[in-house]
Write a structure and sequence with these properties.
The complex is a heterodimer. Chain A is α/β, with parallel strands linked by helices. Chain A has a single domain, classed as Rossmann fold (3-Layer(aba) Sandwich), CATH 3.40.50. Chain A has 11 helices and 10 strands. In chain A, strands 5-4-1-2-10-9-3-8-7-6 form a 10-stranded mixed beta sheet, sandwiched between helices. The termini of chain A are far apart. By secondary structure, chain B is mainly alpha-helical. Chain B has 2 domains: 55 residues; 244 residues, MetI-like (MetI-like fold, Orthogonal Bundle). Chain B contains 11 helices and 2 strands. In chain B, a hairpin with a 7-residue loop joins strand 1 and strand 2. The chains are: A alpha/beta, B mainly alpha. Chains A and B meet through helix 2, helix 4 and helix 7 of A and helix 7 and helix 8 of B.
Chain lengths: 258, 324
């Protein structure tokens, strides 16, 4: 539960294209780390390399180390499927399984892991839905398809699905970008609650959101077209948004470019 | 008709476009109507030609295995055996082709690298281009004889299952439903594969990533996302295949050995399907009343195929409603 990440000298490539250059970053446990930066700067790529999801794309590979409590998730004896079982992920657009009921969606990960006891599954479903602040809205229709919920509810359903397996880390890839402001607020409140139990890394385009929910902020940038993305600086969120040490960071958060 | 439309529309500038619109619309409407009308006319033709013979029939059309139409004064024809042979061979074909097609479609869409998937898919599609007479020859001369030991083994050891009990033709040479069903399965494989491949390919990436991010293996991902998503399309594709198997004529005609006794509901029966029966008698269609007997059989096949398609639509539609 709630492990720490140490990213060391991480380079990511798509085929011959060098997407991200030499990232060094520590993500402390029970803490929210936000990745901000312009589009194409590699922040989502770095996030997806933390649970080896980038490997879904043919030709993607990494160099360097990603240590989860000291253990390299890229070591040759590590199975990516196992990595993804312990590191949860929430995507840009809510993606509940449309043919499954709300309850089956929540426990999908546990069923994959082999849990069969129905009572146990019911308990976890309730606990996870409560954890995702969704229980009161769906408790009467747990057997209905998850696709019938609103966008914000679907996203909380996906969060419930991710936390049901008690992951070591929760990765969120712009989880509010497809949601309205009220649903966004609900998710942000939820993130603040979840960090009591989970290590959270969130990619966001919304700088206010980064300022509101995160403890630590990492700013990524591109040095130029066709150049790899870089981690410019990482610091306490308060410091990044008030007094960043790099000029590029200051330009970005104040809306000045180039 | 197209000119009328343009005549009533004042802006001169858009007239050219409007006329094109009108022509295009009447072409599409015409084509669609032509299809509906021709299906209706085919049904009507079959019915009109079949009724006199059905009236003159001296035995039950649906339950009798007998088929003798030589003596116009004493017509005796029933479709029971035609139906049995048609259904058994087609269902055997479907039972073999469905899992294989699913495997190929999943392999092409979710296992093989895209650059290899395309040529591989072409090869499968090429199967559809092989003329059915070639499949028939191959089935009768190559596959049938080489299946003989397998058929003998099944018949010897599983005879307690009615489907594998003694048939009404000899096992030697393999001129039975068993061989015909396997050949049919190869013939319907491309269509089922092609349809399944398309629906499996369209599985939303979000869904796939959602499953993988939960720690699903590739097979678990396929089970939780690809299969539920593609289920209705897969079934619809299989029904298209079944439709083809039901109506396949020449390959079955060449493979199946004609039987002297009636069907025993076994895979080792010979005999005729609806289509092969009609084709076999085609050279002798001179007497309207005896021809009408075959046309009646054709009518049943027509309606049967219709029913299968309607069922496929129902199943596919239900799957879709469940998914949303």
């Amino acid at each position: 539960m709630a492990k720490r990440f140490d990213i060391k000298d991480l380079n990511i490539y798509y085929g011959k294209f060098h997407a991200v250059n030499s990232v060094n970053l520590a993500v402390p446990p029970r803490n929210v780390t936000a990745f901000i930066g312009p589009s194409g700067c590699g922040k989502s790529t770095v996030l997806r390399s933390l649970n080896r999801m980038h490997e879904v794309i043919p030709g993607a590979r990494v160099e360097g180390k990603v240590l989860l409590d000291g253990e390299d998730i890229y070591a040759s004896n590590v199975d990516p499927v196992e990595v993804r079982r312990t590191i949860g992920m929430v995507f840009q657009r809510p993606n509940p399984f449309p043919t499954m009921s709300i309850k089956d969606n929540v426990v999908a990960g546990l069923k994959l892991a082999g849990m069969k006891n129905k009572r146990e599954l019911d308990e976890v479903a309730e606990r996870s839905l409560r954890g995702a602040n969704l229980w009161n809205e769906v408790k009467d229709r747990l057997d209905r398809p998850g696709g019938g919920l609103s966008g914000g509810q679907q996203q909380r359903l996906c969060i419930a699905r991710a936390i049901a397996v008690q992951p070591d880390v929760l990765l969120m890839d712009e989880p509010c970008s497809a949601l309205d402001p009220i649903s966004t607020l609900a998710i942000e409140d939820l993130i603040t609650e979840l960090k009591k139990d989970f290590t959270i890394v969130i990619v966001t385009h919304n700088m206010q959101q980064a300022a509101r929910v995160s403890d630590q902020t990492a700013f990524f940038n591109l040095l130029g077209v066709g150049q790899p993305g870089q981690l410019i600086e990482v610091d306490d969120t308060e410091k990044i948004f008030s007094n960043p040490s790099q000029k590029a960071t200051e330009d970005y958060i104040s809306g000045r470019f180039g | 008709m197209a000119e009328e439309v343009t005549g009533s529309s004042p802006p001169a500038k858009s007239q050219g476009r409007r006329r094109g619109d009108g022509i295009f619309r009447s072409m599409t409407t015409g084509s669609s109507l032509a299809i509906v009308v021709s299906i209706g006319l085919i049904g009507l033709f079959l019915l009109i030609q079949a009724v006199p013979s059905l009236n003159a029939n001296n035995i039950n059309f649906f339950t009798s295995p007998e088929w003798s139409t030589g003596d116009v004064g004493n017509l005796r024809f029933g479709i029971r055996d035609l139906l049995v042979v048609t259904v058994l061979s087609s269902l055997l074909a479907l039972a073999i082709a469905m899992p294989v097609a699913m495997g190929i479609a999943l392999f092409l869409t979710h296992y093989l690298q895209p650059k290899f998937a395309r040529p591989f898919a072409y090869i499968i599609d090429l199967l559809a281009a092989v003329p059915s007479i070639v499949f028939g020859l191959w089935g009768a001369k190559v596959l049938g004889p080489s299946l003989e030991p397998i058929a003998t083994f099944l018949n010897k050891n599983l005879a307690w299952i009615p489907l594998f009990s003694d048939g009404n033709v000899s096992l030697s040479g393999g001129g039975n439903i068993f061989t015909a069903g396997i050949v049919l399965s190869i013939m319907i494989l491309p269509i089922i594969t092609a349809v399944s491949r398309e629906v499996f390919r369209q599985t939303p990436v979000m869904q796939i990533e959602g499953a993988l991010a939960l720690g699903a293996t590739r097979w678990e991902m396929i089970r939780t996302t690809v299969l539920p998503f593609g289920r209705s399309g897969y079934i619809a594709g299989s029904m298209l295949g079944l439709g083809r198997a039901l109506g396949e004529t020449v390959a079955v005609l060449i493979i199946l050995r004609s039987a002297t006794s009636s069907s025993t509901f076994s895979f080792f029966d010979g005999g005729y399907t609806f289509a092969s029966k009609i084709a076999s008698a085609a050279p002798e269609f001179s007497e309207p009343l005896s021809t009408g007997a075959y046309i009646a059989a054709g009518l049943v096949l027509f309606l049967f195929t219709f029913a299968v398609n309607a069922l496929a639509r129902y199943v596919a539609g239900r799957g879709k409603a469940k998914a949303s």
